[in-house]
Amino acid sequence: MPPPAREAPARGATGRPRGRRPATAAVLLLALAATGATTGCDAAKETAGDIVSSATAAVASAAQRKMDEIKDGVNASGDVTAGPTSVDGDRTVATITATNPKDGTADYTVMVVFRDDGGNLLDTVVLTIDRVGAGSSKSGTARSNRTLGGATTAEIAQALRH
Fold first, then answer.
1. Does 43 have pLDDT greater than 50?
2. What is the pTM of this model?
């Protein structure tokens, strides 16, 4: 004689037995809370930092490509200085001054890097200072691409006279 037929448990819309989901969900939530709550924040911070680092590297790479486009440029790093940084609206700015020691008018293309007080690269911009007269100085403003937090400095990474 076959065993008596057992009644199947009532099933919900998903086909799972009713009554089991809340207990399973509760156990899952407790496990996540116990293991992932503190590391979740750390992981999110790390991911955000990785995104910012990748974006900063991409901007630096684009700036270098722009510098590489300059034909017949002469290294002029000694002709260019960066002033202190300040905040203008939501951006960090620095005055960049080019002093032309030559006998003719020259244009300057300057790559400026912004760094935090730990020396970490925060942003890179390219600035052009046009028509600097012979024996004269002319200034322009390097403006960060994004909001930079904390103390920053501006440095001349590369300068070309053309």
1. no
2. 0.65
